[in-house]
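ok, trying the design again with the full structure, not the truncated one.
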């Protein structure tokens, strides 16, 4: 068996427990990048409360401009985290939980793998 085929087989075993989105890491990376900004994270927290919110509602009691919020919402929309719905002259924004759920599942898998790796390291370190 060639080194290339052994590598390919080993990679398949490693990916077996991972959610599908991890195999398309660009989509997952865009979600984490979008959530990595404190302003966008706050917007997601507000949208998690439920319902759809206008830009005016999202900027109420904040120091960020409507233009600033719109730009942040567009980054979140590009990552598939939120979506805007045109209602009359306004655009209402709401959470799209699918990408966040997929990111959560991915982190759970990584967490389980990390625990297994730490367990192996502990067993190795404690072995005589």
């Amino acid at each position: 068996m060639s080194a290339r085929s052994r590598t390919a087989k080993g990679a398949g075993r490693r990916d077996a427990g991972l959610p599908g989105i991890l195999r398309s890491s660009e989509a997952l990376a865009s979600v984490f990048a979008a959530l990595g900004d404190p302003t966008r994270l706050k917007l997601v927290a507000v949208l998690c409360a439920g319902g759809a919110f206008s830009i005016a509602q999202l900027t109420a009691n904040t120091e960020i401009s409507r233009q600033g919020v719109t730009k942040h919402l567009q980054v979140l929309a590009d990552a598939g985290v939120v979506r805007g719905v045109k209602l009359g002259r306004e655009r209402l924004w709401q959470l799209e939980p699918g990408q966040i759920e997929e990111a959560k599942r991915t982190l759970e898998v990584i967490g389980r793998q990390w625990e297994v790796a730490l367990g192996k390291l502990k067993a190795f370190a404690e072995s005589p």
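Keeping the full-length input from now on. Residues 97-126 form the longest helix (30 residues).
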